[in-house]
Specification:
The protein is mostly helical. 70% of the residues lie in helices and 0% in strands. The N and C termini lie far apart (50 Å).
Amino acid sequence: MKPTNEDHLLKLLAIAIVENPRSTIKELAETVGISKATLHRFCGTRKNLEQILLEKADTSLKSIIEISESNFNDYRVGVKKLINAHYENKEFLRFSCTLQPSIDEIYWIPYLKAIDSFFLNGQKDGAFKIDFNVTVLSEIFITIICGMIDSERRGRIAPNGIIDTFENFFLHGALNDAPSNSSSLS
């Protein structure tokens, strides 16, 4: 799906609200580079804007859940699709995480169940190690992807290649497979 100007504006507004939760409609408009009147025509009130952003977050999570519940012949493709879905919607996900801690049952419980299901199906298919509990795999995946998104926002890591970097790290780890000269780390 190709992003629209409205999607771009909503992403900018989500970021603005996350970074300054008490901002007024006027301050939000200034932050994203539009007039207060334009923002008012777009959403009316701040409460309406927050509702629009929550609906976008809901749609984003539903698309991630749909991907998670898909059957894959190659779960590496599934991992890539999950990473892309998180990154394409990172602003809406951050908005819902940051400002809506009481929506666990509506948003996060189905999301966590779907991610768990993805890794369980991948284990059954032989794609993921069974040495790790499904919940552990899910939490590692979610923690790393959220950390990478936040690090990008803070300017610690560049957005270029971040998806490939995350995919390679998650699927292959950080260890170099070449033999080392040292006998052990301890």
